[in-house]
DNA sequence: TGCAAATATAGACAGCGTCAAGATGCCTTG
DNA sequence: CAAGGCATCTTGACGCTGTCTATATTTGCA
């Protein structure tokens, strides 16, 4: 009938048998990952958790991979909502200083650590290396990064940031820092949660200094 | 019959039936991971690859986890050998400048990207989150980080780096950057391999500036 | 009303980690 | 040199996994 658009993480479907199976699968998957880790998530357990048979999820997601992609997309939506809040609500030009950067960093790390089940999927090799990730997921990720670069360009335009800074390179490096810190914390390599704030602030100091005098 | 002393997952064994099974398992595991990815490594495939039965590896490693720990340890040995070369061969005080930092960063990224099969295990959540990693592996990792911090302290002692820099915080943040870049490259999120050098140098610039004027 | 599509189900298959028993070969000790 | 012990390797089995292939049920629409 309607041209099946490869249905990968498709638009709203309204299931009838079970209710809203698709949504429940996504939520249950995130919960399972949060509680038992990504490795412990299995399609069968997931199906059992929402009370359907093993193969029922396959009518909403072609793959386990597709399911994970959809969870990651949900993560990106939450990510954008949280991290870019100040862009929507206030003029960045009015507030940009080291403190603002500190806030941004803390928001980022906070999201990563407290939504690890999403962050792992969004920026983990599992999906990205597989070359099977949804086009919409790629878009979502690309947009998120673009917002980040644009923010820097915006600061530059407002003469709040040195024009000698290459926004793309700066974004790549600083995002690497944020991502690295997040990963080290999530993966349990950096354990001292007391030090998170100090580390964040040290990073902010570094970023700010670079923005001013580069 | 060398005594591989710190091998924790098993005492030094000298297999006779197969030859040096333990070593061959470690090498084959690294190869399999390199060629097909960590997820594709199975104990059965590994056993098949070296020509023994499925359960033979379990006489050398109690777990799949233990096997992976041993591979990671091998990775740490290579890592230290490559990254800390200039510490052993030359006086750091004589050469430390932005160019030296550039070199260090490139070495680090280079190792990570070209030895991804080891890097994934060494600094990936799979082992670290599991709380089952070998004590010797923890030591190895701790030592690597300590070398990194000490290097900064060394620079400070030589008055080449501002004393206002907190070596620990600086090490944490800058390592986060290196780790983040490595992960983003390995995981296929940063794809433009052309940009690696530019990114590395941008990071070096950032680090150097911080070291001088903080 | 009837038909096609959407949705759910059970059955089956190959692959996985790994435990339990049994077989094989080497080293040490008497 | 014989005997026992032990490290090593093998086969068998169990429960788990992802997912393919039917088959059954429900729904929306002509």
What does this structure look like?
- The structure is a homodimer of 214-residue chains.
- Chain A has 214 residues and is mainly α.
- Helices cover 67% and strands 0% of the residues of chain A.
- Chain A contains 11 helices and no strands.
- Chain A has helices spanning 21-36, 43-50, 64-83, 85-89, 92-95, 98-114, 116-123, 125-128, 135-157, 167-186, 195-213.
- The termini of chain A are far apart.
- Chain A binds a DNA duplex (30 and 30 nucleotides) through helix 2.
Features:
homodimer; 214 residues; mainly alpha; 0% strand; elongated; disordered N terminus; DNA-binding
Number of helices of chain A: 11
Taken in chain order, the helices and strands of chain A follow as: HHHHHHHHHHH
Low-confidence stretches of chain A: 1-15
Q: Summarize model confidence as the mean pLDDT of chain A.
A: 86
Report strand % of chain A. Answer: under 5%
Q: For this entry, what is the oligomeric state of its chains?
A: homodimer
**First-to-last CA distance of chain A:** 58 Å
Describe the sheet with the most strands of chain A. Answer: none
User: Which geometry of chain A do the CA atoms define?
Assistant: elongated
Give me the Rg of chain A, rounded: 20 Å
Number of strand segments of chain A? 0
Percentage of residues in helical conformation of chain A: 55-70%
| Structural class assignment of chain A | mainly alpha
Name the chain pair whose interface involves the most residues: A-B, 41 and 41 residues
